[in-house]
Amino acid sequence: MGDLHSALVAYGPIAVFLGAAFEGQTAVIAGGFLAHQHLLPLWLSLSCATAGSFLIDQGLFLAGRRYRAARYVVRAAQTPAFAKALEFIERFPISYIFAFRYLFGLRMVSPIAIGVSKIGALRFTLLNLASAALWAAIFTLMGYWFGQTIEATFGRYKGFEHHLTVAAVVLVGVFVVFHIGKCAWPHLRARFSR
């Protein structure tokens, strides 16, 4: 159990950072749960979640901005769906920047689309930072409060929190693998059905 504890303390911040960047809410909730278990400081879980979310979205925005004049991007922007999305983004930029992290399926493409739009880089950076901090706080605190609920419910079992931590880490791992597989399955099926 000491090895698991040491690993969670050493690599937990990295896992929360990468999870916030590439997976989303589940990793951030797990970071809050680890903070409740005193394996990570709460401020560190919040900071790693904010930084991971902010940096990936900032990078995707910059990629959209850098390649918005590329022929394939210009062609994509002329399709009715993309044009409608850009119109919505430019009409409600603050609302969209604060909302896209919560919209299933739009998490990774939205910053690219915003980069293609006319929204200024400084404006996006400031809104992105505020949005990432709010998103991280919501889901980290959900994990933290969930830990309090679990502890209140099962607190009478001595040593139970260690088993619960292991179970939470395993569940998060299974969820991440399932999520990646779910996203990759249509592409793999299309590739092998040709």
From TrEMBL:
Keywords: Membrane, Transmembrane, Transmembrane helix. InterPro entries: DedA_domain. This is DedA family protein. The keyword Mitochondrion does not apply. One of its GO terms (cellular component) is plasma membrane. The chain crosses the membrane at residues 12-35, 42-63, 94-114, 126-146, 166-185.
